[in-house]
Write a structure and sequence with these properties.
Blueprint (H helix, E strand, L loop, with lengths): L1 H15 L30 E9 L13 E9 L4 E10 L17 E11 L7 E7 L12 E9 L4 E10 L2 E4 L16 E4 L10 E10 L3 E7 L4 E9 L3 E8 L3 E11 L5 H7 L4
Amino acid sequence: MRAIREIFLVVIGLVTGLSTPLWGQINISGKSGLMYIPSADVQEEGTFTVGYAYSPSRYAIKYNRTNSESIYFISLVVLSRLEINVNLLRPNGMAPRSSVGFAAEGIGDRQIDLKYVFMTEKTRWPSVALILSAPFGIDNSLITNALVATKHVKLSKIIDAGFTVGMGSPYSLYRSGVKNEENSDIFTGYTLKDKRDKPYYYLAGPFGGVNLSVANKAGLMFEWDSQHVNIGLYARLVRHWTLQAGLVNGDQLTFGTSYSLNLLQLPKRLSAKHSPAK
């Protein structure tokens, strides 16, 4: 009975957020960042994040000016500097008769990204990270091959400014000519493409922004996503849960939510119980 009770407490602690604070603002593809752009912020080892983001139709990344998009994501920090991210992009609503039927698109754009922070932030230097997308997907839209740096500056006792700059490669290697019904070999069909040849694209060129965080619980964001200036805000609820919303190019609303916890830490009640006696 005692073992069952402790397992129950662990589960309740993870679900209700008793174990750890939330570590970072999450961007539209599920990485630490602002609204659309990623940052080089370091997440604590064992941090698991799940979330959702909405991309409006006029700024939809794949179904631009046709449908708005829903982006679902999960991420896990497996080592102190290595993060694995998986996201799924799907259109909202029904396809017009003139466009390609969504059935031919499968369940949506599935993508795996790796982020490695090879330089952590110091007094005079920013943290620097490399983000790479696995090339196995078919005509993926959220491909992120980028180098990004982030530096935090304390403006007051409760206000912190996080400055981020980066460069996204316009070129990507992926399987653009393969159809879902013919997707039997992930090692064929690779093509080097320039994202800028598309009507709309994600992170091709210089990007940057600033996150003004108030007491690590809410904040205001300004960013250049390599195409537009966006502004947004976010708030953290019940330690682990974040809500955010913003205006893309001062025109359409984007919003999202994420929930984070640390899988390596026990809830406080069990942590205190199992800590060595002094």
